[in-house]
């Protein structure tokens, strides 16, 4: 935890959604805390008073107070403090270091170890615009192209989400683009529709806070937003998704002479299907997408940019309550999984970013589609068209999927092979792909050991892995939240570290 001699830098991001705080000493990140995990409001855009509460929670967790703080960083975009005045933390005041949106995103690329690479920052909006291509060269960052008027913006994808699955502007852009991505697998690309969308790109590539009724009518989409959208909406989603993929490949092809390495950041870097196509394209020798490419990583990227010696590749930067699952629990957990039980696992520090990567996860053997229904629809209360992702050992990637790059942060969707479709249908989406998480013994020794033990039992070493939360709520963060999750949902067993708890 905190050394008494540590002097702290505190980095803050308000934004329009996904506010977050990072605290670091001069040598390491001590905590990355997403505001939703403290306030209980998913994707929350914190007010000034709420940010004060999150900062207090962060310092309290570390056993520190304002006297340990040397420096405060604040991202300019949508900051709720008066930036013309000193910033108060407790009884002390600080003149903040102001950080920029795109440079903060680019800071999250530093764990790649790339000293020279292209960085595509694809976002919705900020003081730096939406989408740009940058060249990173040994710490120097140069913008080489502004792409705000292309298909590759969060505005385009967010507007399409408003038109298909979520009419509310901020909910569509902040949290539900993943729903439209899931829906796109149920439609097909239509060339005529694609031409119409391209012709209307200027209008679609806008922030429609007032709603998109005019665009829905223009494209023949009904005013009914149902739990399973109709064929027209599926087709629209599929067409937008395919056009996004094609433009991504065209844009990165245009700039590949500048570097053989590419990183993707910004909220649009969470388009795992497009990422999978890019990974398998062979266009770049190395590709990196961080665990927290969206605004949820803003305060972390800002701090890493200013203090590169604090960079870590670990995505487990949240709060830790001294609870660890060890290999002592492997046999018991495998018994539960093999018996068809749905298992929640709580161990170590919370994941940073949007994906549960084994520390706040729901796990199940994905041997039938009924498992997907139970986990996704009954326990998590999500829409029927949303997929569940697998976790596998890194050495099994090419056995089960047509994938070329490891995916430790669930950043790539790959086509499933025949064995996967046969033995693990619950984690294969309607388009035949899966958003894969790969683990090594170093990255997550417990999960790797569970997968190995499953294979020794004659099971396929694949597990469905999804976050421990219900739709619309943040991921479980504290032990008490995990216990409530066991009581309030239909999950069968909770492993709170090595302690096995059964639903009452």
Task: Write up this protein.
By secondary structure, this protein is α/β, with parallel strands linked by helices. It contains 18 helices and 21 strands. The chain has helices at 35-39, 48-62, 101-107, 154-164, 169-174, 177-184, 191-199, 201-204, 213-218, 231-255, 272-281, 298-306, 330-338, 369-379, 397-400, 418-423, 445-456, 479-488, and strands spanning 8-13, 20-24, 29-34, 69-75, 87-89, 92-94, 97-99, 116-122, 131-137, 140-146, 261-265, 286-288, 343-346, 360-364, 389-393, 401-402, 412-416, 433-439, 462-467, 493-496, 499-502. The strands form 4 sheets. The chain has a 9-stranded mixed β-sheet with strand order 16-17-18-15-19-14-13-20-21, sandwiched between helices. Strands 3-2-1-4-7 form a 5-stranded mixed β-sheet. A hairpin with an 8-residue loop joins strand 8 and strand 9 (131-137). The protein is globular and about 60 Å long. The mean pLDDT is 97.
Summarize the structure.
The strands form 4 sheets. A 9-stranded mixed sheet has the order 16-17-18-15-19-14-13-20-21, sandwiched between helices. It is α/β, with parallel strands linked by helices and 504 residues long. It has helices at residues 35-39, 48-62, 101-107, 154-164, 169-174, 177-184, 191-199, 201-204, 213-218, 231-255, 272-281, 298-306, 330-338, 369-379, 397-400, 418-423, 445-456, 479-488, and strands at residues 8-13, 20-24, 29-34, 69-75, 87-89, 92-94, 97-99, 116-122, 131-137, 140-146, 261-265, 286-288, 343-346, 360-364, 389-393, 401-402, 412-416, 433-439, 462-467, 493-496, 499-502.
